[in-house]
Design brief:
Blueprint: E1 2-7, E2 10-12, E3 18-26, E4 33-39, E5 46-52, E6 57-59, E7 67-72, E8 77-82, E9 91-98, E10 102-104, E11 108-112
Parallel strand pairs: 2-11
Antiparallel strand pairs: 1-3, 3-8, 4-5, 4-9, 5-6, 7-8, 9-10, 9-11
Length: about 110
């Protein structure tokens, strides 16, 4: 079992920044994929940024150049730095982990509004 605990969501004005954190605990595999998805009401959950430990990173086209995913492997923590936020970035953001199976965090609300 793996537990994912997210933090860092909130309300921010357009053009602002937020940093999300997700700490994984439990039976962590050394080879894994972690990342962030987001979901708005009435729509499917969509990938935002995904990182293979020690490997590639992929971003949704809508966030390229504005969001950066990073990891602290010693802390089993993944971060999402979100800059130049837009109202359309408003969503619940979910941390995601996959190794032998996938796990999801509880979600953290990000609201971009003036």
């Amino acid at each position: 079992q793996v537990q994912l605990v997210e933090s860092g969501g909130g309300l921010v004005q357009p053009g602002g920044s937020l940093r999300l954190s997700c700490e994984a605990s439990g039976s962590i595999f050394s080879i894994n994929v972690m990342g962030w998805y987001r979901q708005v009401p009435g729509k499917q959950r969509e990938p935002v940024a995904v990182n293979v430990r020690g490997g590639a990173t992929n971003y949704a086209d809508s966030v390229k150049g504005r969001f950066t995913i990073s990891r602290d492997n010693a802390k089993n923590t993944v971060y999402l730095q979100m800059n130049s936020l837009k109202p359309e970035d408003t969503a619940v953001y979910y941390c995601w982990y996959r190794a032998n199976r996938e796990y999801w965090g509880q979600g953290t609300q990000v609201t971009v509004s003036s």
